[in-house]
Amino acid sequence: MDSNDAVHVWHRAGNPTSTERLSNYAEALISECSIGAYRALNDAQEDRAILALFRVDQPQATIASLHQMPPLALSGYHQLLHDLAREGFGPGSGIHGETSRLRHPSETTLH
After folding, report:
1. What is the rounded average pLDDT for all residues in the chain?
2. Is 48 within the bounds of a domain?
3. Residue-range definition of the domain harbouring residue 40
4. Which of 18, 66, 100, 110 has the greatest number of beta carbons closer than 10 A?
5. What b/e sequence results for 26-44 when a residue is b if at least 16 CB atoms lie within 10 Å of its CB, and e otherwise?
6. Are 91 and 32 in contact (CB under 8 A)?
7. Burial class of residue 64, CB neighbours in 10 A (0-12, 13-18, 19+)
8. Which helix (H) or strand (E) is 20 found in, with range?
9. Rounded CA gap, 32 and 10, in Å?
10. What is the pLDDT of residues 38-73, one digit of tens each?
11. What are phi and psi of 42, to 5 degrees?
12. The whole model's pTM is what?
């Protein structure tokens, strides 16, 4: 999946963000890890994916600063991942870990 595919998924999901901005998010996510078939992420993997997206808006962000943000402030970034998951896609190779945090859409209702 390339950045154009991700933008298409996000628009289809009803995301009102501009195409240019969504392209920036897609490119940031792809630079951290490829986007491919859905797979569950553990906490560290999800943090890295969210951090890649968050750095589009806050280039100097770190995992520590990410953890200091209120959950509501990060909800838009989570939504981007959830929208991909609903379509059967998500961050893939390049992120390593074991414990699942984000489940397949058929297993849970995504917020």
Report:
1. 85
2. yes
3. 3-91
4. 66
5. bbbbbebbebeebbbbeee
6. yes
7. exposed
8. helix 19-32
9. 18
10. 999 999 999 999 999 999 999 999 999 999 999 999
11. -85, 180
12. 0.81
Q: Is residue 106 part of a domain?
A: no
Q: Please name the amino acid found at residue 83.
A: D
24 within domain boundaries: yes
Cβ-contact 49, 96 below 8 angstroms:
no
Under 8 Å between Cβ of 52 and 32:
yes
Indicate the Cα dihedral angle 104, 87, 52, 96, nearest 10°: 40
Rounded to 5°, the CA angle 43-44-46 comes to 65
DSSP E strands in the chain: the ranges are: 35-37, 89-91
The total number of structural domains in the chain stands at 1
The owner of tokens 């943090």 is 47
Write out the two tokens for 61.
């962000």
Assign 41 to helix, strand or coil.
Answer: strand
Asked whether residue 85 is domain-assigned, the answer is yes
